[in-house]
Amino acid sequence: MNRVFTYKFDTPTFKGTTQVNTGLFINGKFVDPIEGGSIDVTNPATGKVITTIAGGTKKDIDVAVKAAKEAYKNSWGLKCPGAQRGRYLSKLADLVEKNIDEMAALETLNVGKPFKTAKNSDLTDMISVLRYYAGWADKIHGKVIETYEEKFSYTRHEPYGVVGQIVPWNFPMLMVGWKLGPALATGNTVVLKPSEITPLTAQRLCDFIIEAGFPPGVVNIVNGYGSTAGQAISEHPNISKVAFTGSTLVGRKIQEASAKSNLKAVSLELGGKSPCIIFDDADIEQAVKWAATGIFSNAGQICSASSRILLQETIYDTFVEKFTALAKSLQHVTGDPFDADTKHGPQVSQIQFDRVMGYLDSAKEEGAQFHVGGEKHGMGEGFFIQPTIFTGGPHMKAVKEEIFGPVAALIKFKTEEDAIELANDSSYGLAAAVFTENSSKAIRVTHALEAGTAYVNCYGDLEPSLPFGGYKQSGNGRELGEYALNMYSEVKAVHMNIGLKL
């Protein structure tokens, strides 16, 4: 029997009780997994198990897809007017907002990010995204295209039908919003798999989906491991599109599985090793703060983190001194994510902790110079790693590969051309930044960078209305903005004869 997990929070930032059903959410209700699987959920700040949730497999995905297909045919898709779909999304946003403290506390408990960040950034942004797409739901339209008088020609934008969505563990609720918003606005039904590491807020969201009045089967949330539930979504013949956010390695597997099954459409938001170029005419104080935000926020667990900081040699020493001082200051605000002063939390899991520490060991073996960090934070429990800055050659493993932790590599350059070459010397192309007070240089360099998102004199400041996605091995397709709607709809061209004769 699926059960309800009850947790009482008594912390400096939130006091209250939450109840989370641990079953699979299929066809509007919580159910037990067919094969009885379960998954332990851990608090990364302590390393201890919080609870156990249901773990679905291929059989559960089959049931969820069947429910989603029936809902698409009978109560959603083009059977539900766009204005009504928008009202459902708006109601869901309202319910998340009404319970934002509880949801932020769950996110903090399960992910380890500071409570204030979870509330004021992740959950607040998720609500904004849902409302943004609620506004789009009744504005999905094609075009009338003039040909000649005897022919009426137009296009329709139609939903795929059943879409599969696989979201990551670094921003669990925000990524659910990024995925559900455009998919539901365009009329698709959804089978969504949260990360098995961080499922709690998605589980709680199911209660709000019911309360918002979504017809059963429109949204199905099935927890499970990537190798079972995730693989089943990628291979399923009745899923017409899959959207994935996560590692490049897994993205390749999803692309392959989709191709081998029914050639379903695939959009991928994958890894990155994003460059942050700081020229000698930049506002150094601001550049230091933005670069630190880009790499140390969320304990560095951001696909677009500013993990390669390229510094013009004339300001190198000044920047290193100021940047190191800022990183050292974070040591004093690292710890309990429920503490109001905490700014730096733990890595999300033992596996992720070990991964980051492995890269730090590799950098040491290759002769990197560490200015700060490079070790576990403290001797206590939890998966905490010190904010780390190192310098070394641009071809070191820790400089080339995505670490996904609070680790910044500093690299010198001489000229604008050198900076562009170093920045683009990567298999990734998710994001990049340029810091300069010269607007001509900013535009020139930005246009030369091989990245899907480019920042000028800022970093990581996303908007619901602007697209986000990568070049090269950082993926394909786009999240957010009007562009994301195209990821969830197919275009039909209609040719109507109103006078042609043979």
Automatic annotation (TrEMBL):
It comes from the Eukaryota. Keywords: Oxidoreductase. Residues 37-494 form the Aldehyde dehydrogenase domain. This is Aldehyde dehydrogenase. GO terms for molecular function: aldehyde dehydrogenase [NAD(P)+] activity. CDD domains: ALDH_F1-2_Ald2-like. The active site is at 269. Belongs to the aldehyde dehydrogenase family. InterPro entries: Ald_DH/histidinol_DH, Ald_DH_C, Ald_DH_CS_CYS, Ald_DH_CS_GLU, Ald_DH_N, Aldehyde_DH_dom. Pfam families: Aldedh. The lineage of its organism: Eukaryota, Fungi, Dikarya, Basidiomycota, Agaricomycotina.
